[in-house]
Structures are given as structure tokens and as C-alpha cells.
């Protein structure tokens, strides 16, 4: 039995996770995977039900699970709450030791015209952002008053070393190019970052290492995105650059992510927000949640099933099924149903191939 905790969260989170879970249920039945799903409150839903964005019962379930699939958190409803829904997201990353966030971004076949970049610039873009997730400004001490405020950004050598190893290992399995992004001409933390990453590179001679300041990287991503393979960077820079990179493919709704690194379960989520105005209208794009589910399957040691789901998602997009964020009229539930139709086809084709081999 593989136990998966579902955190639907807020806004469109429940809708997109529903479609991803239905795909996983289909795979589980067809391949006897034994996937077991349990839902728990998280984010704003956790505040409403328990007064806490990460209720104790939710955290306990996550720690006992094999993987966690998250929808989205946040919304205007909780702007004046004593604690915001996003605080739960920071806490769960720390509690599960999820220091590495993997955010792949590429151009899907059939969506070349959806990119805001010229086709000759965007076509062929395939980038993996490896973002440090439990350090930096988001986790540093902070002060606030009506007259002044401060946020502490700090990184230790071990924190940088462990995320660098994740990125170099990923690059070794791709095109063997790694760009480390920092602001070493200004920030002390970035100076240490560049020094440590350069030292770690010696253990990966097959990987070509380059360095860019974050402002230069932001420009390069929209002028020559194909030049990048793996981008390694710290928490704040990774958050911003991966969101910038996401729209090159046409919509932030397309992309999934994996947060890993601890001894326990990984956390898998689309990179989009909760989009409260779209909630309950069946217009959200579930592609990012489905892509996240595929990444989860890979992390669970089920790469063939992950590939079947990925191919089914790609075919659905190539067939021209577009949700509102991509200028189309396909409903969220309709898109998910079409992915499952393609998944049934892929499963049948795979089983037929296995019978021929036997």
C-alpha cells in the first residue's frame, strides 16, 4: 500500500487536485499500484477548520505518508487573519525537511503559439530550476513597524552544499550544463554561495558550470532560454525566476513541481496560486497538478507509470484541448477526462506491447 496525503487547499486547489487524483486512481487500478488517498485540511481551509494553516492532524498524516500532493493555498479571505495560509506552506517544508524544490519548464508541443516569446526563441526550451527551499529570506528573522522593517537572509555552507549536489546530480542526467544564479557582487550570502558551488563542481567534472547574477539571468531567460539546462539558485531568486520561466510555455497553470530532500515524503504541487476568482467555476487548468502527480510517481519509484501519465498529458495538449488561461474553452473537468482517455489508450498500448514481448 502506498499512502498519499491530498491537501486540496484553497481556491482552485480542490478542483485541480481532483483531476490529478482521478488520473492516479486510474493508473492504480490498471497497474495494481495500491495507491491509497486521504484528504486533509491545509492553508486557508486549515485556518477555517482548525485555526491553523497546518493542523497537527494534517502534519501527522503527512509525516506518515509516502507522498503529499498539494493543490494551492491562500486568498484574500485570510488577508486579515492572525496567521496567513502561506505560513503553513513554509512550516510543512521545514517540518518535512524539504530543502530542494525542482521546477521543470518547457514548451509543450502544440503550444508554441501560446508563448509570449517569438517561436524561434521559445521553441526547444527545456529548463529545470533547482531552488533551495528552507533557507534565505523566507526563513530568516524579521522585524516590522510602521517606520522600519527588516528581513534576515542567511545561508550556511552545509545548506548550500546539499542543494548543489541535488542540482549537479540532476544536470548529470540531462544536458550536463548547470548555471548557478546569485548576486555575488552585492550580497555576502551570494559570495558564499558562489564559492561553495564552485568547490562542489570539482566533484562533477562532466557538468559544465557557469555563474550569472540574478538580474542578468532574468534577462537571459527571455532572450535565450534554450541556452539553459539546469538553474541552481537560492530561495527568493528561485521563486521569482521559476515563475518568470513558467510563462514562457504559455501559462503558469501548466507546470508542476517537486519538493524533496528529507528522509520522509516529498511534496508535489503545481506552481500556480489559488486564483480565488476562478474557484468553483470549472475553468482552472489542471495540467500543473497532473504534471506534479507524474513527478510524484517518479519519486515513488514508478517511472514507467509516470511516463504513461506524462505522455497522456502531452497528447491532450497537442490535440488542442486548452483551458481558459490558454485562450481556450475546455473546462477543468473536461481536460482531466481527456487526459484519462489518453491514459487508457496508453495503458492498452503498453499492455499489448508487453504481451507481444511475452
From TrEMBL:
<keyword id="KW-0028">Amino-acid biosynthesis</keyword>
<keyword id="KW-0520">NAD</keyword>
<feature type="binding site">
    <location>
        <position position="131"/>
    </location>
    <ligand>
        <name>substrate</name>
    </ligand>
</feature>
<dbReference type="GO" id="GO:0003862">
    <property type="term" value="F:3-isopropylmalate dehydrogenase activity"/>
</dbReference>
<keyword id="KW-0432">Leucine biosynthesis</keyword>
<feature type="binding site">
    <location>
        <position position="93"/>
    </location>
    <ligand>
        <name>substrate</name>
    </ligand>
</feature>
<feature type="binding site">
    <location>
        <position position="103"/>
    </location>
    <ligand>
        <name>substrate</name>
    </ligand>
</feature>
<dbReference type="InterPro" id="IPR004429">
    <property type="entry name" value="Isopropylmalate_DH"/>
</dbReference>
<feature type="domain" description="Isopropylmalate dehydrogenase-like">
    <location>
        <begin position="3"/>
        <end position="339"/>
    </location>
</feature>
<keyword id="KW-0560">Oxidoreductase</keyword>
<comment type="subunit">
    <text>Homodimer.</text>
</comment>
<feature type="site" description="Important for catalysis">
    <location>
        <position position="183"/>
    </location>
</feature>
<protein>
    <recommendedName>
        <fullName>3-isopropylmalate dehydrogenase</fullName>
        <ecNumber>1.1.1.85</ecNumber>
    </recommendedName>
</protein>
<dbReference type="InterPro" id="IPR024084">
    <property type="entry name" value="IsoPropMal-DH-like_dom"/>
</dbReference>
<keyword id="KW-0479">Metal-binding</keyword>
<comment type="similarity">
    <text>Belongs to the isocitrate and isopropylmalate dehydrogenases family. LeuB type 1 subfamily.</text>
</comment>
<feature type="binding site">
    <location>
        <position position="243"/>
    </location>
    <ligand>
        <name>Mg(2+)</name>
    </ligand>
</feature>
<keyword id="KW-0464">Manganese</keyword>
<feature type="binding site">
    <location>
        <position position="215"/>
    </location>
    <ligand>
        <name>substrate</name>
    </ligand>
</feature>
<dbReference type="Pfam" id="PF00180">
    <property type="entry name" value="Iso_dh"/>
</dbReference>
<dbReference type="InterPro" id="IPR019818">
    <property type="entry name" value="IsoCit/isopropylmalate_DH_CS"/>
</dbReference>
<keyword id="KW-0100">Branched-chain amino acid biosynthesis</keyword>
<keyword id="KW-0460">Magnesium</keyword>
<keyword id="KW-0963">Cytoplasm</keyword>
<dbReference type="GO" id="GO:0005829">
    <property type="term" value="C:cytosol"/>
</dbReference>
<feature type="binding site">
    <location>
        <position position="215"/>
    </location>
    <ligand>
        <name>Mg(2+)</name>
    </ligand>
</feature>
<dbReference type="GO" id="GO:0000287">
    <property type="term" value="F:magnesium ion binding"/>
</dbReference>
<dbReference type="GO" id="GO:0009098">
    <property type="term" value="P:L-leucine biosynthetic process"/>
</dbReference>
<dbReference type="GO" id="GO:0051287">
    <property type="term" value="F:NAD binding"/>
</dbReference>
<feature type="site" description="Important for catalysis">
    <location>
        <position position="138"/>
    </location>
</feature>
<comment type="function">
    <text>Catalyzes the oxidation of 3-carboxy-2-hydroxy-4-methylpentanoate (3-isopropylmalate) to 3-carboxy-4-methyl-2-oxopentanoate. The product decarboxylates to 4-methyl-2 oxopentanoate.</text>
</comment>
<comment type="pathway">
    <text>Amino-acid biosynthesis; L-leucine biosynthesis; L-leucine from 3-methyl-2-oxobutanoate: step 3/4.</text>
</comment>
<feature type="binding site">
    <location>
        <position position="239"/>
    </location>
    <ligand>
        <name>Mg(2+)</name>
    </ligand>
</feature>
Amino acid at each position: 500500500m502506498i499512502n498519499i496525503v491530498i491537501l486540496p487547499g484553497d481556491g482552485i486547489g480542490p478542483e485541480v487536485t481532483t483531476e490529478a487524483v482521478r488520473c492516479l486512481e486510474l493508473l492504480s487500478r490498471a497497474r495494481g499500484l495500491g495507491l491509497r488517498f486521504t484528504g486533509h485540511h491545509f492553508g486557508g481551509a486549515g485556518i477555517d477548520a482548525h485555526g491553523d494553516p497546518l493542523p497537527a492532524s494534517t502534519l501527522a498524516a503527512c509525516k506518515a505518508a509516502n507522498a503529499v500532493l498539494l493543490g494551492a493555498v491562500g486568498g484574500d479571505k485570510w488577508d486579515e487573519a492572525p496567521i496567513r495560509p502561506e505560513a503553513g506552506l513554509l512550516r510543512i517544508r521545514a517540518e518535512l525537511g524539504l530543502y530542494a524544490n525542482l521546477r521543470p519548464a518547457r514548451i509543450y508541443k502544440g503550444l508554441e503559439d501560446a508563448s509570449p516569446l517569438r517561436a524561434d526563441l521559445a521553441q526547444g526550451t527545456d529548463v529545470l530550476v533547482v531552488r533551495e527551499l528552507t533557507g534565505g529570506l523566507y526563513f530568516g528573522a524579521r522585524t516590522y513597524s510602521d517606520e522600519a522593517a527588516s528581513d534576515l537572509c542567511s545561508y550556511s555552507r552545509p545548506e548550500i552544499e546539499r542543494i548543489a549536489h541535488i542540482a549537479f546530480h540532476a544536470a548529470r542526467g540531462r544536458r550536463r550544463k548547470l548555471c548557478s544564479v546569485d548576486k555575488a557582487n552585492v550580497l555576502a550570502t551570494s559570495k558564499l554561495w558562489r564559492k561553495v558551488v564552485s568547490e562542489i563542481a570539482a566533484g562533477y567534472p562532466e557538468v559544465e558550470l557557469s555563474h550569472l547574477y540574478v538580474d542578468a539571468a532574468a534577462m537571459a531567460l527571455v532572450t535565450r532560454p534554450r541556452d539553459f539546462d539546469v538553474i541552481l539558485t537560492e530561495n527568493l531568486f528561485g521563486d521569482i525566476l521559476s515563475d518568470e520561466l513558467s510563462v514562457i510555455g504559455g501559462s503558469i497553470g501548466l507546470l508542476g513541481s517537486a519538493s524533496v530532500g528529507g528522509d520522509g515524503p516529498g511534496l508535489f504541487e503545481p506552481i500556480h496560486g489559488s486564483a480565488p476568482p476562478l474557484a468553483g467555476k470549472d475553468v482552472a487548468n489542471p495540467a500543473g497538478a497532473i504534471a506534479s502527480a507524474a513527478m510524484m510517481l517518479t519519486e515513488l519509484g514508478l517511472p514507467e507509470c509516470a511516463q504513461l501519465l506524462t505522455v497522456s498529458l502531452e497528447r491532450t495538449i497537442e490535440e488542442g484541448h486548452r483551458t481558459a488561461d490558454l485562450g481556450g474553452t475546455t473546462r477543468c473537468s473536461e481536460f482531466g477526462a481527456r487526459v484519462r482517455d489518453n491514459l487508457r489508450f496508453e495503458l492498452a498500448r503498453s499492455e499489448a506491447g508487453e504481451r507481444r514481448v511475452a
